[in-house]
């Protein structure tokens, strides 16, 4: 009986140190989750997670629990996504960075941070790292929206596939310049897509101009082609397009890693799709733990 009570007490104590709640910043409520902050040591980095486009913080359930045993963790829903309140301003890179900065400051979660971003979240952690480089001690990109690509890079893929130049121009227009009506019911996800399209039009000039903090950088890339047959292009070999694009991305991301003297890692998971942390959580957890070990900040 005493043993059973002791086990129950340990479970209860573990739950007390995990918190899912709301914080109000500039008059707007944000939903967040944190764990391990009460036991944080001085100077210990916090793992801060940025979700993919339109995704809530539950998207990290496959990895965040185990990572919380390595370091304190923090995740949240961006404005207009899941349980966080809508803010009728475009979620630009600067807007999202400033919101996150204010949230962390309001909750007294001081730097340093290891930022972990999936998909669109990868773009947003790049923005945060550029605007607040002194806050960051590491960057982990999970199959990110490619903030290093240019329109010419995109067109070069189709040239390798021997798509006619006229059709290439038409597809580029369809991708970036087709007007989109505002979707107020889903303002968060819709507006994030518009921000991504606007950045692609300028070859991500706003992001490219930002400094890269001199910290370890990790990219984890999914190599599994997932487009269902009914959604594949009739203009080109879609599987071959994915292969070429992935190879181009990897070459640019390797250069991005080299921009930091701290170096880093690029992990290619051939059996994983875009949601690499769902398809191979063990590999993702191991890579993040390896970064924490390189910082000398593991528990």
From TrEMBL:
GO terms for molecular function: monoacylglycerol lipase activity. Residues 45-159 form the AB hydrolase-1 domain. One of its GO terms (cellular component) is membrane. Keywords: Signal. One of its GO terms (biological process) is acylglycerol catabolic process. Residues 1-18 form the signal peptide. The keyword Signal applies. It holds the Pfam family Abhydrolase_1. The keyword Iron does not apply. PANTHER family: HYDROLASE, PUTATIVE (AFU_ORTHOLOGUE AFUA_2G14860)-RELATED, MONOACYLGLYCEROL LIPASE. This is Pimeloyl-ACP methyl ester carboxylesterase.
């Amino acid at each position: 009986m005493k043993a059973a009570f002791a086990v129950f007490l340990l479970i209860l104590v573990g739950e007390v140190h995990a918190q899912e709640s709301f914080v109000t910043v500039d008059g707007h409520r944000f939903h967040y989750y944190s764990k391990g902050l009460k036991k944080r040591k001085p100077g210990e980095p916090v793992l801060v997670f940025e979700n993919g486009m339109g995704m809530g913080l539950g998207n990290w359930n496959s990895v965040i629990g185990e990572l919380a045993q390595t370091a304190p963790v923090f995740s949240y829903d961006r404005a207009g996504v899941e349980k966080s309140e809508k803010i009728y301003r475009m979620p630009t890179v600067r807007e999202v960075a400033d919101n996150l900065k204010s949230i962390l400051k309001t909750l007294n979660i001081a730097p340093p941070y290891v930022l972990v971003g999936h998909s669109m979240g990868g773009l947003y952690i790049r923005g945060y790292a550029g605007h607040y480089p002194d806050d960051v001690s590491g960057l982990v990109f999970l199959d990110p929206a490619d903030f290093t690509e240019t329109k010419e890079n995109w067109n070069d893929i189709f040239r390798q596939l021997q798509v006619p130049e006229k059709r290439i121009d038409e597809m580029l227009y369809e991708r970036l310049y087709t007007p989109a009506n505002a979707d107020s019911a889903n303002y968060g996800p819709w507006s994030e897509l518009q921000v991504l399209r606007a950045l692609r039009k300028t070859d991500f000039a706003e992001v490219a101009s930002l400094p890269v903090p001199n910290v370890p950088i990790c990219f984890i890339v999914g190599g599994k082609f997932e487009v269902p047959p009914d959604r594949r292009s009739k203009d080109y070999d879609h599987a071959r397009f994915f292969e070429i694009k992935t190879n181009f991305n990897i070459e640019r991301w390797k250069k991005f890693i080299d921009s930091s003297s701290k170096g880093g890692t690029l992990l290619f998971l051939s059996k994983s799709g875009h949601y690499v942390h769902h398809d191979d959580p063990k590999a993702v957890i191991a890579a993040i733990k390896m970064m924490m070990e390189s910082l000398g900040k593991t528990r």
